[in-house]
Write a structure and sequence with these properties.
single chain, alpha+beta, Alpha-Beta Plaits, two-stranded antiparallel sheet, 2 helices, 5 strands, binds iron/sulfur cluster
Length: 64
């Protein structure tokens, strides 16, 4: 199963955990907010993406 990363900017406050857990898709800008380079998450990355979604302290990250 594949998916797509979505960030709810009304919730995200730049903790940056998502970039640590999914560096293949997310890096941080100079203010510590995530930059999604490619929303698409293939089969191999889905477990990592799910983990990033689970640990986001603001419930701002979704995998659709
Ligand atoms: S872990 Fe959640 S709150 Fe933190 S930067 Fe990522 S999306 Fe934003």
């Amino acid at each position: 199963m594949s998916g797509a990363i979505e960030i709810d900017w009304t919730r995200c406050d730049g903790h940056g955990l998502c970039a640590q857990l999914l560096p293949e898709r997310i890096t941080l800008d100079e203010h510590g907010f995530p930059v999604v380079h490619d929303r698409t998450v293939g089969d191999a990355l889905v477990p990592h993406a799910r983990r990033a979604v689970a640990v986001c302290p603001r419930l701002a990250l979704r995998l659709e």
